[in-house]
Amino acid sequence: MTQANIDLSQADFGTRPDDFGGGSGGGYDKTTPYFRLPDAERAKYQNIPATPAEEAAKKEQEQREKGGIPNWVWVSGGLTMMFLFAVLLLLVVYLTMMGDKGFDVAVKGAPPGSDILVDKAFWGVTNEDGSKILTSLKAGETKRIEIVHPNFVCEPREIKGVDGVTPEPIIARCQAVAVKPGEDCNKIGLGEFDKAERCYNAALDALSDPFTVEDLLKALNILIINFESGKYDIPPVRLAAIQKGAGYIQKMPTSVVIEVGGHTDNVGGDPSNQTLSENRAKAVRDQLIKFGVNGDMLQVKGYGEMQPKTTNDTEEGRFHNRRIQYSLVKK
């Protein structure tokens, strides 16, 4: 204190045993001295608000005493509703999956690489054996099936299926398109792949029986395969022509050996053209084997741009130089 005339009783600082409440410990059994407040003040500080946990426990006790719905009932109800919703969802999925499935039907005997249309909508391309599975057709409706190929005319077919029942296959009824009036097979122009195929088919059909390997090679070399630039995949639309040629090669004696030669134009570098010509020749050889030709009758060679058929100075000349050419190795 700053004033010397203030005198505080030593009891205010807990200097005597009685200041600590007395007792058997001589009054020194307390660790902290305390102040004794008047009763009115002491009551005010003893009314401390309850904690949130105490309030919640108090409300729960009051709810039980009043007979309200316990919390476990609400939890159980929520879990039951979730279970019922899951059952309902599974039921909807089951009915959707087990509902109308439609039907599938097979198409057989179509020209390989033909487009299949169902009610004018594209439904895929026929496989190498001329087959195609048409899936998920709507039952109860009459479907019009069309087989489209640039060098074949196929009769449209109709079918009306039953849900989940597989009907008998549709057998294609197709005829090759003949050389059109006025078409000159001695002159195939730029991009006339379909015309070249028609002339190829006509030349094969005109072979005598028996025919010579020279006549066969002459007919085979009419076909022009329109490979995409830089690629060696055979376009599906040309598979039917290769299949027909394979049938005639199989009529030759097995002693005959034919070279399948690949040629390119002069666009691009020599190494890349060489590789490209080899890959295209291999692709045709492999396809002929798939169609039944004995692999021992076929050899492959790539010539790149080294043996042009005509000039490379024009687009039409380059068109004719990009070719597959068959030649005789052994009779």
As for the CATH topology of the domain at 193-330, it is 60s Ribosomal Protein L30, Chain: A
- Taking the alpha carbons of the first and last residues, their distance comes to 134 Å
Biggest sheet record = 4 strands, antiparallel
Number of strands: 12
SSE series:
HHHEEEEEEEEEHHHEHEHE
Question: Average pLDDT, to the nearest integer?
Answer: 85
**CATH first level of the domain at 193-330:** Alpha Beta
How are the strands of the biggest sheet laid out side by side?
3-2-5-7
Give me the number of helical elements: 8
What is the CATH-assigned architecture of the domain at 193-330?
2-Layer Sandwich
The CATH homologous superfamily of the domain at 193-330 = OmpA-like domain
| Low-pLDDT runs | 27-31
Pairing-aware structural class of the strands and helices?
A: alpha+beta
Computed CA radius of gyration, to the nearest angstrom: 48 Å
State the share of residues found in helices, binned by percent: 25-40%
Strand content: 15-25%
| Approximate shape | elongated
Structure characteristics:
single chain, 331 residues, alpha+beta, Immunoglobulin-like, 60s Ribosomal Protein L30, Chain: A, 4-stranded antiparallel β-sheet, 3-stranded mixed β-sheet, 12 strands, 19% strand, elongated
